[in-house]
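Entry 14. Ran structure prediction on the chain below.
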Amino acid sequence: MRACRSCLFLIALTGAAAAPGLRQVWSQALAPAAAIAEATNRGASIPDFSGIWSHPYLTGFEMPFSGPGPVLNTSRSPSGVANFQKLVGDHTNPILQPWAAEVVKQHGKISLAGVGYPTPSNQCWPGGVPYVFWDFLMQMFQEPDRITMIYRHGNEVRRVRMNAPHPAQVVPSWYGDSVGHYEGDTLVIDTVGIKVGPFAMVDMYGTPHTEALHVVERYRLIDYADAKEAIARNDKENFRVRQDGFDPDYRGKVLQLQFAVEDPGAFTMPWSSMITYRRAIGEWTDLICAENRHEYFAGRDSAVPTADRPDF
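Output, structure tokens:
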């Protein structure tokens, strides 16, 4: 299959103070391991988050119910939703430091000229968090001492250690060091040490990040009725893709991810966003990005990661 890595998106066709709520999220997520373990063992039942979850939206990020939110697309389709064929991030969003706003602006200019710019997805690089949350399908494997999360596009894998602190010295990696714990019915994942690579960005609009990036995720199972407002708002913001893994008539439990982002190197303030997942239907299918690294429209090869030396 020909790869269109010059396209705007490859779809498997294939210092301000934080708001009180965010401060609470971060302080809880960074609690000592002993306190985490004690809270986990108080007899509260742990929800079953395991299985395959779907959100068929591009580019996926939802606005929070309150407070600063992510960069959104200023390019709109006739229906009013974000135009995923032309990714023009709002560089005037006040969360952006001037240099970061300029990066977003330059990516938007490339899009407006009708040319695709490199992203982790179309260059076959690991996306890191929160970038990878755009992916339509996520599979979670839940064990007492670890959580494993697989994202379908490129089979990207995250590993979360449960009831453990971050090491004193974190070695940067593509998905960072992730530790988790339960707060009642909520799975909390805290991630630091996300590596900065040649295509480092937190979203599809090229919004950059630095080594100081800190992401806290909170996952909860909620009734569909309680998620209707978030779903309706997302339908007005993001383009819904037709795909086999999503049942539009699903009315069961919804997995709601609320995540907070902090990076004093790139952002003027912490901000937050959401992803609303529903149970996926059908079988899990693998999408391998690097089968053909040639960009036919640009007449060049993508910058697929390569090893400096043999593994053995």
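The helical segments are 20-29, 33-40, 98-112, 224-237. Will compare against last week's run tomorrow.
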